[in-house]
Amino acid sequence: MESFSELLLKLVEASRNHERYRDIECVNLIASEGLKSPAVNQMLSLSNDLEGRYAEGENDLEGHVKIRYYQGQKYMSLIENYAADLMKSLFKCTWADVRLVSGTHANLATFKGLSQASKNRKMVVTPLSCGAHISHDYAGLAGAVLGLENINHVYSIDELNIDPDKSAHVIRAAKPGIVTFGGSLFLFPHPIKELKAVADEVGAYVAYDASHVLGLIAGGVFQDPFGEGADFITSSTHKTFPGPQGGVILGNPKNPRLEKATKAIQFAVFPLSASNTHLGRLPALGIAALEMKLFGAELAKQTVKNAQTAGQYLCENGVHVLCESKGFTKSHQLAVDVSDFGGGKKLAQELEDAHIILNKNLLPYDDQDDRDNPSGLRIGFQDVTRRGFREGDIKHLCDLILSVIKSKRKPVEVKEDVIALKKEFNHVKYGFQSVEEAIKFAEKA
Ligand SMILES: Cc1ncc(COP(=O)(O)O)c(C=O)c1O
């Protein structure tokens, strides 16, 4: 066993190496990761004291601090209120809870609260095999932790989407307390509008997990969950929404039924599932919200355009990109079947060797028990878009990907081109370079 100091030196060295490797030398196409601006990073570094504090207590139905059980809260309560108000303003809703430390935490509190409020333990969700997150599933948080009974939406593999007509039958028959939309493999807007009336008919709350697409929604593309009938939005704040790692729940408690549900969710946040709430991220979350207010529309549009461009280009070059007939995607992601080229596991590793980082993915028609043999890759374009990639750059990146997929070049050779390409795009766009810059912009607006 190494000595304590040897371990410490190695730890620091590994973290320095990581920063250089992933931020400078690799192209990131992981669909669940975001890219923070220098201003958001700077704000995080200016919130060191806050990062160590506690603020246990209760909030009101606007998401503002009501009671705190700790002293020293003079500014902390303001910080939480302002962060909640910025998220409410951005997403045009009347309640936000920003105390969640992750998207999973947001789901935990929401599913727990809604099952309590509806006195119903049944939840209709997308099947895990078709792109739901593990926190939605009976094998994960929803079932194994909260003890909910999961019933699956009927999913069309051809459409890569929930089948609204067949799911209506499922919801009517199951009479759940919660109908959930959203997911991790999430290429097309889910049919909230089509199923809202059915959820109402059986008295179910509608929850929408926007973790992957929150930035797209902020930018006015993909879908409008509240406009289409969602009662609550749960989300991470660090995927297409380029904030610090954290979570949020949004809602409009405009009638007694929704007020009751909101209070149950708040209770599930505190005291049930949070003590410290990682307060140091809140000022940075506010800066990210401002960036999305100002630049979100342009960023979201370009992100989807880049994903569609890559879909078309890979397809034209002989790769099976799912859902060609629907234009490949309406989000930041593509699902690609690479079983003809050795499968997802082999190619994700070879692409990593070329410094192109993306995830292998079981596709809905794969044997879900054979996790080691996925036929797919899931590719996300939010990071490269924020770095300024446009259609031509995306095609160039696809050429590098294709040369690995088709074994035309060795990954180590491609790596040199990837590092050179990344050098040209090491500047974060659609955001601010410093907190000062953000403040100047906000003062002018
Ligand atoms: C749909 C969905 N919900 C929730 C989560 C969990 O998010 P977090 O990592 O913030 O807990 C993910 C993670 O990727 C996700 O895809």
The name of the CATH superfamily of the largest domain reads: Type I PLP-dependent aspartate aminotransferase-like (Major domain)
Gyration radius, rounded: 22 Å
The level 1 CATH classification of the largest domain is: Alpha Beta
Mean pLDDT: 97
Q: Report on the biggest sheet.
A: 7 strands, mixed
CATH architecture descriptor name of the largest domain: 3-Layer(aba) Sandwich
Number of DSSP-assigned strands: 17
Helical residue percent?
40-55%
Structural class: alpha/beta
Number of domains: 2
Shape: globular
Q: How far is it from the N-terminal to the C-terminal residue, by CA?
A: 58 Å
Low-confidence stretches: none
Provide the β-strand percentage band: 5-15%
Q: Treating each run of at least 4 consecutive H or I residues as one helix, how many helices?
A: 16
Under CATH, the topology of the largest domain is which? Aspartate Aminotransferase, domain 2
Bound molecules: pyridoxal-5'-phosphate
Strand order in the largest sheet: 4-12-11-10-9-5-6
